[in-house]
Amino acid sequence: MSRMSRGRAVRAAAGFALLAGLSTGCGGASSTAASAGFDPGGCQGGTLTVLSHAGQGALDPAELDTTDGAGLPALVFRTLTTHDHTAEGPQSTKVVPDLATNTGEPNADATVWTYHLKSGLKFEDGTAIRSADIKYGIERSFAAELPGGPPYLREWLIGGEQYQGPFKGAELASIETPDDSTLVFRLSKPEGDFPYLATATQFAPVPRDKDTGTEYQKHPISSGPYKVVSNAGGKSLLLDRNPYWSRELDEQRLACPDKVVLTSGLDTAVINQRLLAGSGDDARAVSGDTDVDATVLARLGGEPGLQNRVATGYFGATRYLAFNPKVKPFDNPAVRQAISYAVDRESVIDAVGGSTVAKPATTFLPDQPAFGYQPYDYFPGGLAGDPVKAKEVLAQAGYPNGLTVTLSHSSTSGDTGPAVAAAVQLALGKAGITVKLDPAADQDYVAGTQKPDTEPGFFIAGRGADWPSGGPFLAPVFDGRHLLTAGGNVNSAQLNDPQVNAEIDAAGRLTDPAKAAAAWGQLDSELGKQAWTVPLFHPVHMRLVGPAVKNAHASQWNGRYDYSRISVR
Fold first, then answer.
1. What SS3 class is residue 214?
2. How far is CA 258 from CA 205, 244, 282, in A?
3. Is the whole model's pTM more than 0.85, yes or no?
4. How far is the CA of 441 from the CAs of 448, 449, 457, 543, in angstroms?
5. Of 12, 212, 273, 491, whose CB has the highest number of CB atoms within 10 Å?
C-alpha cells in the first residue's frame, strides 16, 4: 500500500487539480491548456514517456499496492471495478464498473458480494476472460512466493488467513465461480468497502496456463489497452497496444498514445530539468514520481506557460506525532493535550518545504469529502502553537516546572526526518517541554515504531490512503483487533476500546459511500478528543509535464497522473 504505516513512503498526491496559478487550496481541477476537458482530435498516436526516479517496481498484479495499481499498471490490468477515470476532482474517487457490469451486488449484511462480467472481454492473445481467471488471480496473491499487496483479502475472505495460494492445487472456497461470467465472494464480516478493494490489481484476471510464478511480472498477460513488450524489472518498461482491447468494451480508458515508455533511475533534479526544457521526446513526457523542485518553483511566477504545465494536488495522507500511552508520561491525556497546543505547524511545514508542499492538519482524516472529513480542532493553538496554553495544561497535568521527553524520528531527510523533529523540539521548548531527539536509520526506525515491544513513547509517523475511504485510514490505526505484535503495527496508541471497535464495525458495513463517509468522519471527530495523535500536515504535491502533453490530470484516488486519459501532440 502507499502508506507509511507499512514502511513505504507515500509517493504520490491524490486529488490533483491542474494549476492555473500557484493556489494550493483544495477543490476540483482548474481549467488549463493541459487539462481543460478531453480533446478527441489529438487522442490517437505518439509515444508518452514517463520519467521516474524509483521506477515501477513489481509488475505482477499479485504484488502491487492498492494505489500503485492505479498508475501505469491500470493500462495493463483491468479489474472488477476501478475509480472513475472520466471525472476530475472529488468525483474521480467514485468506484465504477470495469470488467464487471456494476460495482457489486451485496447481500443484506454485506457479507456476500456478487459480480457479473461484461461480455466480449479478451486477453492480449485473444482468449476470453472468464470468472475463473479472476478467481485464480486473487488466489495467487496469497502465495508466499508473491509478497506484497493489500492485507484485506486475507482478513476479509472466509478461510483467507489460512490459505497459502494455488501453486500446490488448493483453491479458496470463499470465491465461487458458478459460471464463466459470475463471481461470488463470501466474507468473514460485513464490508461495505468491498467495491473499493475490487479495484486492486489482485482482482485482475490471470490465465492459469500462462502463469510463470515469480517470473510472471516479466510478461504479465494484459487485459487492458496496452501489453508489455519489455520489462527490465520495472526500471524500464515499454508498453504497446493490445490489439484485442477496444474502447467499446472499456469506457474508462482512452488509451491515446500508441506506446508508453518508462525510464527510471533518474536523479530528481534531472527529471525536472528535462521537463523544463521540454525538447525532443521530453516534450511528450511526464514526471512519474518526482515533485517540482526549487528551480521550477522560482520560475513559475514569471512564466505563465510553465504554470499551465504544473499540477498540484493532495494525497489522502496525514503526517502526525504519535503517542504510545504505555510509556510515561504519555499515559496522561493532559500531557498529550499540552503537546497538541504547543506544536507549531507553521514551522513544521517550513521544515518540509513550505505551504506549496504541505497544508496544516488538525484532523486525522485527510480533508477530502471521500474520507468523511469533518473539521475539528480541539486544542487550538493557531499555526504557530500556543505555548502559554500548553504550559497551563501541563501544570494541570502535574508538571508545573515542565518535563523532558524523547522524540524518535528518522535520521534521513523527509517528512519524518531531522528537520521536522527539530521544528517540534523548538516549539515544545517554548512550552517548557525539553525534547531530546532520538534518530534512527529508516529501516530500523520503521521496524522499531511498528512493533509494540519496541515502540517508543513519542515519534513522527504518517498514514496514506489504501483507497479514498475512512475505513482503511482509521481501522488499522485505532482498532485493537488490528494490533500486530510481531511487527507492522500502526496502532501506536495500542488502543483496544470495545466502543471504538463497534463503531468501526458499524461504519464498515455501510454500503452507501455517503453514509459511510459520515460515520467515519464522526468517529474521527470522537477519537480526536483523546489526543492519541497530533496531526501536523497533509502533503501537497506538484508535478511537471512536457509542453506537448495534453489532457493531463490526476486522480484523487492516488494522485498520479491518470495515464488512461493523457494524449501527446
1. helix
2. 23, 14, 16
3. yes
4. 10, 12, 18, 28
5. 12
CA distance 336 to 530: 8
Whether the CB-CB separation of 428 and 458 falls below 8 Å is answered with no
> Is the dihedral angle over the CA atoms 279, 283, 289, 290 positive or is it negative?
positive
Instruction: Yes or no: say if 204 and 190 are a contact pair by the CB < 8 Å rule.
Output: no
Question: Could you tell me which of 53, 24, 22 has the C-alpha nearest to residue 297?
Answer: 22
Q: How far apart are CA 118 and CA 477, in angstroms?
A: 37
3-state helix, strand, coil in the chain (%, to 5): 30, 20, 50
User: pLDDT by residue (tens digit) across 403-421?
Assistant: 999 999 999 878 999 999 9
d(CA 240, CA 259): 5
Mention every residue, 6+ apart, whose C-beta is less than 8 A from residue 302. Answer: none
C-alpha cell at 193: 468497502
Q: Give CA–CA dist 351/424, Å, rounded.
A: 10
Are the C-beta atoms of residues 376 and 362 closer than 8 Å to each other? yes
CA dist., res. 147 & res. 152, Å (int): 14
- Tell me whether the omega of the peptide bond preceding residue 418 falls within 30 degrees of 0, making it cis: no
Q: Which CATH superfamily is domain 317-541 in?
A: Dipeptide-binding Protein; Domain 3 (3.10.105.10)
Q: Assess if CATH 3.40.190.10 describes domain 4-263+545-568.
A: yes
Q: Contact at 8 Å (CB) between 65 and 58?
A: no
Q: Could you tell me which residues come within 8 angstroms of residue 304 by beta carbon, excluding any fewer than 6 positions away?
A: none
Cα 419 to Cα 185: distance, rounded to the nearest angstrom: 47
Distance from C-alpha of 149 to C-alpha of 466, rounded to nearest angstrom: 11
**Residue 477: which H helix or E strand, with range?**
helix 471-478
What's the rounded Cα separation, in Å, for the pair 60 and 233?
A: 10
Q: Provide, rounded to the nearest whole percent, the portion of the chain with pLDDT above 70.
A: 92
How far apart CA 130 and CA 207 sit, in angstroms, is 9
pLDDT tens for each residue of 1-31: 443 433 333 333 333 333 322 222 233 333 2
C-beta of residue 316 within 8 angstroms of C-beta of residue 468 = yes
Cα distance between residue 226 and residue 344, in whole Å: 48
**Mean residue pLDDT across the chain:** 90
Helix axes 498-508 and 513-528, enclosed angle (nearest 10): 160
Could you give phi then psi for residue 231, rounded to 5 degrees?
-150, 110
Closest alpha carbon to 68 in 217, 185, 206: 217
CB-CB neighbours of 437 under 10 Å:
14
Q: Under a CB-based contact definition with an 8 Å cutoff, are residues 535 and 318 in contact?
A: yes
Ordered by start, the domain boundaries in the chain are 4-263+545-568, 317-541
Per-residue pLDDT tens digits for 132-172: 999 999 999 999 999 988 889 999 999 999 999 999 999 99
What's CA 213's distance to the chain center, in Å? 27
Q: What pLDDT shows up at residue 383? A: 96
**Who has greater pLDDT, 93 or 96?**
96
Omega into 329 within 30° of 0, i.e. cis? Answer: yes
- SS3 assignment, position 542: strand
